Amino acid sequence: MARVRKSPAAGGPVGAASAATPLQIPIPFATPATPATPATPVGPEGPPTAATPATAASQRLWFCIYLPNLPLEACGAGKNALAVVEDQQGVHRVRLVNAAAGEAGVMAGQSANAALALLPDLQLEERDTLREQQVLESLAAWLEQFSSFVSIAGNNVLLLEVAGSLRLFGGLPSLRQQVSAGLEQQGFAASLAIAPTPLSATWLARGGRRACIRAPENLVSMLRPLPLHCLDWPAAISEALVGVGANNVGDCLRLPRQGFARRFGVKRLLELDRALGRLPDPRASWRAPERFCADYEMTEEQSDQGLLLAACRELLESHEQFLLVRQLGTQRINFSFFHLKAPATKLALGCTQADRSAKRWSDLLNIRFERLSLPEPVIAVRLQGGHTQALQTSSGHLSFSGRGQTTQRHSMTQLAERLAARLGMQSVNGVTSLAEHRPQHAWCSRNLLSTKVSEALSFVRRGLKRPLWMLPEPTLLHVEQGYPLHLGRLTLVDGPERLETGWWDDDGIARDYYTAVNPRGMRLWVFRNRNPSAAWYLHGLFG
Amino acid sequence: MSQESLNKLLENPRVWRGRNSTHTKTGLSTGYKKLDRHLPGGGWPQQSLTEILVEQYGIGELQLLMPALARLSVDDPLTPYAEPGWIAWVAPPFQPYPPALQQQGINLSRLLIVRPKDDGEILWSAEQALSSGTCAAVLLWPERLDDQSSRRLQLAAEKGRSWAVAFRPLSARHEPSAAALRIEVQARQQGTCIDVFKSRGGRPVTLHSIFSS
Asked: Which residues of B touch A519 (CB under 8 A)?
């Protein structure tokens, strides 16, 4: 009889107990009992605080980092006056200013023109949310040293779960000091707060309170004086709350739950419950993208190129395997060759399209390796993969036509990469033409490795004569008895074509272009400036 | 009697007759009828090296290639490629001027301009471009091109099914070369004159005022 073990479902009292603790979530809708107690306040005095969520929350400690000036800091603010502007209903308005601009009277909310009128050499930067996100992610990656659980909440808030990190970092004050010193060193103005729930930590940080609450029972008293703007609720709700006389969190907690939910939405009530730890508030953990790093240790000092390349190839193959199982590719790979005495020799490889193929990387490596001078024999090789990104893969053709060579023709970027790897990026170019009358501005170089390919339009009329060869700069021609000379006296055979344009910048021209022939049969494109005593210049050759 | 012995000689299998052997291979039309008539295959020899010898630039040496290059750089059902090929310019002496190239009908988005620093790099780049299978034509301006290098270019052109065009000075005329076609471009009073002095499977010929027809 001592072994009577009732299953909880069979026991009547268990169900009764759960009825005694009112459900916190669906308050206004499924509450048959509440009409009897209509004025249950939102706050802790009201419905009994469930014991279980509170203890669960007490196991956690959330460290919130709020970055109010992130838009400014993401621009890489220097000493100069700087303001971040944002497009608000068609008007550029100042969103944030740095200290130098603030001293001159530039304030948030001013229009960009007003700010410029106050401070003519004010630097205006358009707000770049993408960049902010990148900065936030790099900060999150940095914060991973303090906690295994980093979360990005919203566009300027970072959350760390630090309960597990306290012993390692020597207690809360020391941890807080390390984080704050690190942020300051990186140039971020941050407001820090520590609380048992993520939402309360966020609110406290937003309120600028240097709060550090470890015990859940202290939470309510700390949250009460917080003004409503710290909650980051929509303006309409905040105004409505002020309308009913609720100016801070404490006032909200005193309002009846049901009425609060009906007037301001269940979502807000749930937020209050989560902040107080009455409801669980799960957060998504953020992880820095994985990188590959592997070493290959030589059994002895090695200077043979073939063996070193074989070692590199082996590393590249394991790199490929690493990326393959994650369906990723990378655009950069760094090799380090370690020597016994000399500092390590570095070799960085890059390609335009993310790739993981060991063969392609080792092709690039071969080209670079030929020219690499190693000061000493190598004892170890390290491969570090760059930032990984999802790989765009394409299926191969199933060719029925039997024209096997066509598949090879897609490899222009590969060729350009190979050439650029040996000759340097600036030596491999494409060209495109521009809509411009001035001959020297009618074209520009195009980076072949950029993915953007714009169709070049033809701007020059067919009738106009343009030479196939252009000199980088016009060369001055000597003149003999009024005739220009270039390997003999020039005869003008066509022209003039008058080009007089470009007055809007400093490079305006007023020239008469002619086609000339010299005794050796060369056809040249020459011009003279539009004034009587002007000299003759050679600008191109009709190749 | 002489006719008889000549026929006898020609029947000998050891006698190689150039004219017939390469007629099967079609050339890339130069765009100039006069020149097409005198080149074996009716045009520029594909998948091989062509040498163009000039005393100085600016006498129509590029104009000679333009119709063929324009055909290569745009989609053309007649060319045996699925998509238009690239045209690589390795170490051009001046800047190829894009508006003029467009006037000639060349698709600028298919142009690759490579500026290597020394002669070794010029040949390396040209070989890479030729053998990659990406470039329909590779124009190069080497400082020197010995017999061995020309052979390498020839092999690379065959491998990548590309057309190599090397521009060289007149002094190169008496140097040996593996090029399939060697021509000299001269500027004359009556117009540009072309001297075909080596043509694999064809015969040497001199053509006057090529652009006028």
From this structure: none
Q: Distance, in angstroms, between A332 CA and closest chain B CA?
A: 22
Identify whether A179 is part of a domain: yes
- Average pLDDT on B76-101 reads 79
Q: How far is CA A266 from CA A148, A243, A269, A382, B55, in A?
A: 32, 19, 5, 56, 88
Cβ atoms A206, A230 nearer than 8 A: yes
Instruction: Report the pLDDT value the prediction gives residue A20, as an integer from 0 to 100.
Output: 37
Residue B41: φ, ψ to 5°:
85, 0
Question: Is B158's Cβ below 8 Å from some Cβ in A?
Answer: no
A194 HSE (CA, 13 A, CB side): 19
pLDDT tens readout for residues B2-33? 788 888 888 887 777 665 544 445 788 888 88
pLDDT score of A460 more than 60: yes
Burial (CB count <10 Å: 0-12, 13-18, 19+), residue B131: buried
A150 and A245, same domain (yes or no): yes
Domains of chain B are: 19-212 (3.40.50.300)
The minimal CB distance from B112 to the residues A432, A448, A458 is found for A448
Give the pLDDT mean for A439-468: 74
The pLDDT mean for chain B works out to: 85
Q: Hey, is the C-beta of B139 within 8 angstroms of any chain A C-beta?
A: no
Whether A297 and A314 share a structural domain: yes
DSSP designation for B13: T
Q: Which two tokens stand for residue A181?
A: 């010193």
Beta bridge partners of A497: A513
Average pLDDT over residues A446-469: 71
Residue A457 within a domain: no
A95 inside domain: no
Q: Is the peptide bond before B176 cis (omega within 30 degrees of 0)?
A: no
Reported pTM = 0.57
Looking at the fold, whether A185 and A264 belong to one and the same domain comes out as yes
pLDDT tens sequence across A357-400: 888 889 889 888 888 888 889 999 999 988 887 776 655 555 55
Domain match, A266 and A351 both:
no
Burial state string for A452-480 with b = 16 or more CB within 10 A and e = fewer than 16: eeeebeeebeeeebbbbbbbeebeebeee
Same domain, A59 and A170: yes
Rounded Cα–Cα distance for residues A238 and A220 (Å)? 20
d(CA A426, CA A365): 19
DSSP state of A126: E
Range of the domain at A324: 293-390
For this complex, say whether ipTM is above 0.95.
Answer: no
Q: In chain A, how many domains are there?
A: 3
What CATH number did the domain enclosing A316 receive?
3.30.1490.100
* pLDDT, mean of residues A129-141: 85
Q: Give backbone dihedrals phi and psi of A395, rounded to 5 degrees, phi first.
A: -80, 150
Give me the pLDDT at residue A392, please: 63
In a domain, A496, yes or no: yes
The C-alpha of B20 sits at a distance from chain A's nearest C-alpha, in angstroms, of 27
